[in-house]
Each structure stands twice: as structure tokens, then as C-alpha cells.
Amino acid sequence: MNIWHDLQPDLVRREEYTVFTANSMGSTARLSFDGDAGLLCLDHLSDSNIGAPNNTGFLPRTCTEDGLPIETILLCSQPLPAMTLVRCRPVGLIALHLEDGGTRNYIISAACADEFWSACLTVDEIPTATRKAIVRYLRYDQQLVRRPVSATEFCGLEQAEKYFDACQQNYLLRYCGKIPPQS
């Protein structure tokens, strides 16, 4: 089974979707998704002082411009093991503007089963300390792979949904050869 392609399509909708977790909150190991194998692989290890402030994961049945599934920052009160399926909904998006002119986008997702974070509806409701920790971690992570970040931007739910829709359409074109009818 390749989790990227074999998850039921109705489990990946822009209002609510299943996230495949990768990096556990507090972990200094950075796992990336191997699209061919449908598994996680060790990408790099970060300094022991900079662990992931949140769980991270991927959205199956989506495809970004770089050919991989959407990465997500998962708002959840507890560390989750890698390869856990978690029902989530979007809260917003964080855009990392890179010094080379590129952009890396991450959808910010709230775990539906988490009483605290499921009440978070917008990026404005994310505590400032949490937002700063996310930015610090993502900047550090990009620096490790020699992609320095020049600016970060938190965007609202509408931007996250537009990005999700574009990546889902890209997936359907690339792997299924079709675009679904607009609803």
C-alpha cells in the first residue's frame, strides 16, 4: 500500500482530511516522504536544541509543484508517532519565502479529535508563542538544507483552501489523468 495514492478519495476533502503524520512533536529527526515507496525516510537530523514544536505530516492524494504531497503543520496537544492517520481540518497556511525566490507552503491543520486545537478556527487564534515556535523551526529546518528563508507569512483559511484545491487538481491530473467536476 502506498499511502499517497491508496487512501480513499473521500477521506481527502478541503473541509476535512486525513493527515499521514511524519515528524513527532519534539523530535529532532526530520523525516521526509518517499513518493515512490509511499514510506517515510530519514532526511536529516537537527540540532538537539531545535525539536519540532508540532507534529508534521502529509496530505495524501495531493501534489505540490515539486511533485510531493502537501506538507502540514499539525496542531495537536500530544506528540503522535510517525505514520499515524489523523482526521484534521485546515486553519490556515504558512508561506516561507526563500532567498532564491521560491516559496514553500505548509497548510496548518487542527486535529479534529483534540479538544483544545479543534476549537481553533483561524491562524489568528493560534497563540503568538506557538506561531513563533513554528516559524523558528521551519526557518532552521530550511537553513539545514541550504534554502534560507527571507520572509514568512501566515495566511488565512481561504488561502489554505485555494492551495489545497490546486494541489488536489494537480494530483488528479498527474496521477489520475482527470479533473473532477466543480461542485
Automatic annotation (TrEMBL):
It comes from the Bacteria. Pfam families: Pyrophosphatase (PF00719). InterPro entries: Pyrophosphatase, Pyrophosphatase_sf. Its cofactor is Mg(2+). One of its GO terms (biological process) is phosphate-containing compound metabolic process. Its EC number is 3.6.1.1. The keyword Magnesium applies. Keywords: Hydrolase, Magnesium, Metal-binding. SUPFAM superfamilies: Inorganic pyrophosphatase. One of its GO terms (cellular component) is cytoplasm. It is an enzyme of class 3 (hydrolase). One of its GO terms (molecular function) is magnesium ion binding. The keyword Iron-sulfur does not apply. This is inorganic diphosphatase. The lineage of its organism: Bacteria, Bacillati, Bacillota, Clostridia, Eubacteriales.
